[in-house]
Amino acid sequence: MTTSAAGQPLIPQPPATVTALRQAVAQIAPAALPAFARELDQAADQARQGSDLAPLRRFVAQWAVYVHIQRQPHLAQRLRHLEDTATAGDAEQARKAASEIGRILDDAHAAFSSSQR
Asked: pLDDT for 53-72, tens place per residue?
C-alpha cells in the first residue's frame, strides 16, 4: 500500500463506478482485486437472473465504502485491529470493538451516501 503524508488519504475518493473503484482497489489494496472481480461477477449474475440492478448497486456501495476506508491507512489499520479484537478478545472487548467497527462503517456509508446526492 502506498503511504500518505501527514495522515492524508492515499487517493481521492473515486466516483462510485465499477471502473473507478477497480482502479482505486488496484492502487491502494491490490491483494483485494480477486475478491473485487469475484464479487462483481456474482453481482452481475444476480442482476441478470433477477432482471434487477440492485445487486450491482449493493456491490458498488460495498466497494465504495471499502475504498473510503482503505485509502486512509490509519483508519484501515484501526479497523483491522478492531476486527482482531472482536474475534480474539473477551466478551466486553468484543462488544466495544464491534461498536467502534459499526461507527467506522456508518461513517463510511454516510460519506458514500452524501457523495451520491
From this structure: 999 999 999 999 999 999 99
Nearest CA to 82 among 111, 59, 105, 66?
Answer: 105
Given a contact cutoff of 8 angstroms between Cβ atoms, the answer to whether 97 and 72 are in contact is no
In a domain, 40, yes or no: yes
Q: Do the beta carbons of residue 58 and residue 39 sit within 8 Å?
A: no
Is residue 2 domain-resident?
Answer: no
Task: Kindly indicate the confidence band of residue 7, based on its pLDDT and cuts at 50, 70 and 90.
Answer: confident
How far apart CA 11 and CA 117 sit, in angstroms, is: 21
Domain count, the chain: 1
Tell me which residue range forms the domain holding 80: 30-115
Place of cell 440492478: 53
pLDDT of residue 24: 98
